[in-house]
Amino acid sequence: MFGSLGRYVVRHPWQVILAWIVLAVAVVALAPPLQSTSDEADFLPRDYESIKALEAQADAFPELADTEPAAIVVIDREDGEPLTDEDSAAVEALAEDLSAADIEHLADITANPPSENGVVQTITAGLTEGTDPFDTTLTDSAKELREQAKDAVEGTDLRVGVTGSIAQNLDAEEAASGAEAAVGVATIGLIVVLLLIIFRSPIVALLPIVVITIISQVATGLISIANEAFGLQADSSITVILIVVLFGIGTDYILFLMFRYRERLREGEEPKAAMVHAIERAGEAIASAGGAVIVAFLALVLSSLSIFRSIGPALAIAVAVTVVAALTLIPAVVSLLGTKVFWPSKAWKKEPKGARFAAVGDSLGRHPGRFALASGLLLAVLAIFAFGFKPSFDFSQMSLPDDAESMVASERMLEGYPAGATAPQTVLLRSTDGEPIAQDELAPFGSALGEAEGVAQVADPIPSADGTAALFIVTLDDDPMSDAAMENVEGPIRTTAHDGAPDGAEALVGGTTSIFVDLQDAMVRDYSVVFPVAALLIMVILAVLLRSLVAPLYLMASVGLGFGATLGATVLVFQVFKGEDGLIFMLPIYIYLFVVALGTDYNILMIARLREESRQGKSPHDAAAWAVRHAGPTIAAAGLILAGSFAALMLGGNPLLVSMGFAISFGILVAAFVMSMFFTPSLTALLGHTAWWPGHGDQARPDETDDPVDLAPEELTQKE
User: Fold this and answer.
1) Which of 217, 414, 452, 714 has the fewest CB atoms in 10 Å of its CB?
2) Which of 527, 554, 529 is nearest to 539 (CA)?
3) pLDDT digit string (tens) for 321-348?
4) Inter-CA distances, 375 with 322, 464, 561, 611, 691, Å
5) How far apart are CA 607 and CA 602, in angstroms?
6) CA distances from 402 to 221, 405, 652 (A)
7) Is-above-0.90 flag for pTM?
């Protein structure tokens, strides 16, 4: 199949290139903008209590767009001293001016009393009736509010900062934009530099950048079309991750192809025939590796969280487009250039000595047991620390750099107000029989709620217009984002609310902390479903590729160890050494998918080469040695480029991208230099023929030959 594909591509390169150009233009013209969200409530299904509370509140109190202020203007003095009476009067005047400014979407702009210690005072702003809290134009309202507030206090002793949901969304949008630029520049720069070092040719170095830029437009457009068609919405980091996935994985697959192409050229084959052979041999590895990645990402559709159900197909589409381009567009371009693709270097003509990889391969072939034990032990020791993983569910704060205005303003606010005041929780009491709730039952319910562990205060109930519901605003003792707050909401607060509901009514606990509690439950459920399904599907791909039931078992065991080692190393660096309270809750799934899927990529490349060496009559130990010698440079180069690409995420500046960049880049290095370079070939050497049971994948096939590809003479027009 891949041989036929290769023949078509080298015979009709302009057709292939033109088809890609037409596809890119059509997709870009028809695709809607790629939408994203950073609101945690968007991620949960409707059957969780926090979402039921949110929807019930919207039904019973349509005039309340949100019980949390849309924006909070935090005012304090530059010198840190308590606010004076004149300062408070200035804050009152500022609130009046902001209200008179008639900022779009904002209403009920009110000055609140100073904090008890007099250090901080706030102005809160709500949304106009009927405004969608997730309207993307609200960031413009936040920007105007900031500008007006700062202009008003200019030249005074006061300083202002704006926080709240719309301000956080504005900061997240700006941070994502900056991160996208920084990550894009770093990723492309790294790829160009490493390819220049490897091939010593500016053409090879720039080829992936040009080609992947084109296919990225196709992939992003197809993702937008799919999201709109199926009502999916990814998180705000998707655009940054797509850059890394497309350029990192795309360059990997191009390397797989180009190393094979160069290898055949060195054996004296004509350029077009060499490209056909490269597609025939590397094509199976690229398609299988891409298939493993796609299957792993598509397993996310089984998630209960919409963030994973949308980002999984998005990344799967990106990888699928990349695989197709690596097998069609890249070969078409290279077949036109021939050996000029390596200009001005002549190094492609000479087989490198490969002393390092040859030495490693020889040593591994002689002592596979030592390599298997050492690499396995290293992974196991790091994996122990994975049990210390503490999830954080505050997606908004994890997506923001520490110096973002909303983050700084929130910190200043805590200097005067209790921690729970930053995000009050809600408890909705609603009738279950359609009858109004007796008003004399509201006060006892509120009193019982106020005595629950973790509750600082409960405001007077707000009855609905028809009396069938009442809303209680609850302030927690602890930071709403903390583990203590989550434990109290999940335990005593929900229990008290449920048990204290009067006859004929039910209580629903909502608010940010309640959403975090439900996210945690959903995450645990997803781990038990997504992980096994993804692993099983990848094993099926490996079994089909290798015609073996044994090899897939230890290959998946190796990537499982790689996952544990990666999560453990991340916990060690961020929670133990840096002292962070936790890591974003979605990190284990991202690590699992990228390390398992991409680790399988390198395992596939290594074991496919090992099988090829075995089919040439080498013993298991010798086949492992030669596989490391030949596939080692490709895996090392691909691993460095892909790890470096994901490491560029650390330039994003926010905790989410920093931790994700470190974790995935470390996992890829483990996958390339420990799993596939040492663990997989050493185990295969130890198992010998048993590794290929019940098939005979290591035995030579009469229909498989290394002879040059037979093309018509007129097709071999590209000479050196």
Assistant:
1) 714
2) 554
3) 989 998 999 899 888 888 888 888 777 7
4) 31, 64, 10, 22, 19
5) 9
6) 32, 9, 12
7) no
